[in-house]
Amino acid sequence: MTHLGADNFEQEAISASDAGSAKRRIVQCARELFTRYSFNQVSLKDIAEAAHVSAPLIVKHFVNKSNLFAQTVDFKNSCANLFAEDFPHLGLGAVQETLTAPHTAPYSMIRVITVTDGEDESMAHIGARIREDLIDYLAERIRNEAPYHTPDPYLRAQCAIALLAGLSMMRRFGDPEFAELDLVPLRDYYARTLQGILDGDPESPAH
C-alpha cells in the first residue's frame, strides 16, 4: 500500500513536470510566432503545431489567445537594456539604445505594440507590462538616485518612457530617411532632454 502511494505520488510529480514543460514550450513558441507575425495572423492551431501540443491543451492552460499573448509580453529585458547606465548617464544610454536596438528585438516595445494590430485586450496587457516592467522600475530609480525630489518621480518616469517610445516610433515609421541622418546630434539632443526629465526640478512645478 505504501509502495503504491509512493508510485502515485511520483506519477503526479512527473505529470506536473510535463504540464509545466508543455506550458513553457507553448509560451516560447507563441513568442517566436508573434515576433514574426501579427496577432491576427497567428492562430491557436499555428501555436499548437509549433509547440507539438493540441489546441485544446492551450485553451486549458490559457483560455484564449489574448491571455496567451499576455504571457509572451515581457519588457524586463527592454528595461535592462534601456537603463543599464548609472544615473548621470541614464538619458544618454537609453537614447543610444533606442536609436540602435534592432527593430525585431523580442523585447522591443514598439514591435510588440505593432504586433497586436490594435486588438483591445492585448493592448491592455501591454499597457500593464509597460507600467510594471518599465515605468515602476524607472520611477523607483528616480526616487532613489535623482538629484531633485520634484516633480513626482512617477510623472517623470511616464514622461521619459513616452519620449523614448516617440523616438522609437519616429525611427521605425515616421521618417523614411531616418537611416541616413547623422545620429550623433540627434542622440545628444534627446539625451540632454531625457536626462533633464529624469533629474527633475529646475524649478518645478512639472518643469
From TrEMBL:
Keywords: DNA-binding, Transcription, Transcription regulation. Residues 43-62 bind DNA. One of its GO terms (molecular function) is transcription cis-regulatory region binding. Residues 20-80 form the HTH tetR-type domain. PROSITE patterns: HTH_TETR_2. SUPFAM superfamilies: Homeodomain-like (SSF46689), Tetracyclin repressor-like, C-terminal domain (SSF48498). It comes from the Bacteria. This is Transcriptional regulator, TetR family. It comes from Corynebacterium spheniscorum.
